[in-house]
Amino acid sequence: MTSFDLSLYLVTDRELSKGRSLSYIVEEAVKGGVTMVQLREKDCTTREFYELGMRMKALLSPLSIPLIINDRLDIALAVDADGLHIGQSDMPWQVARRILGKDKILGLSVETMQQAEEANRMDVDYIGISPVFATLTKTDTLQLFGLNGLKEATSLSRHPAVAIGGINLQNAAQVVNSGADGIAVVSAIASVDNPRQAARELKLTIKKEVPNE
Ligand code: TZP
Ligand code: MG
Questions:
Q1: Where are the alpha helices (DSSP H) in 21-127?
Q2: What is the distance between the alpha carbons of residues 198 and 188, in angstroms, rounded to a whole number?
């Protein structure tokens, strides 16, 4: 499998990018220290998704930053992405794993403690604990894990875990101190004026180190 580093995981949403191109946001975010990128675009045609995927692949592959596709196994295969991220109502993990093969990264969102526990019996490469805090970016969330829920979920999980939902500079350190291997963010990077600086500051907060430029 492609090796991966969940520490600062950017999840995209063009709607929050304030008119700037996705390539700009992603490029800046990577310069600031993002370690992984998930292309998550809900409001686009298959063709658009494919073309965005190809663009992201061309941008990220030379930098050795894994590109993960949200939901769409067909797009993940078509663009030869590094992996796929599925939710509880997407393609069953067994099917995704069979079609993707062992070499690709497979991530799964868990929205309850029970789902976190069930994921221990699944051949996935990481879980996304979702959501930790309240967020305006995703509206169909079930319950909030909060920091205590996050601690419980990370300690019962045998998989690496990334936390998502409402994570920002103010709470990022607490999130990693609660056992998460990384933070996944949308708005804290994609909707701010300076995505590179935002990524740098988040990275510093969670890793206490500055990325090379
Ligand atoms: N899944 C759970 S919360 C969320 C997703 C995709 C959105 C997180 O967005 P933000 O802006 O980082 O709170
Ligand atoms: Mg999904």
A1: 22-31, 46-60, 73-78, 93-100, 113-118
A2: 7
Nearest ligand 1 atom, CA 11:
6
Residue 124: closest CA among 156, 102, 150, 154: 102
What predicted TM-score, i.e. pTM, was given to this entire model? Answer: 0.96
Is 41 flagged in the annotation as binding? yes
Angle between helices 46-60 and 22-31 (to 10 degrees): 30
ipTM: 0.98
The answer on whether 166 is annotated among ligand-binding residues is yes
- Domains observed in the chain: 8-206 (3.20.20.70)
Q: What is the mean pLDDT of the chain?
A: 95
CA distance 52 to 41: 9
106 strand-pairing partners: 84
Note the residue count of the chain.
Answer: 213
Which ligand 1 atom is the nearest neighbour of the CA of 16?
11
User: Measured in angstroms, how far is the CA atom of residue 45 from the centroid of ligand 1?
Assistant: 21
CA atoms in the 13 A half-sphere facing the CB of 7: 21
| Closest CA to ligand 1's atom 3 | 165
Ligand 2 centre distance from Cα of residue 108 (Å) = 9
CB 4 within 8 A of CB 85: no
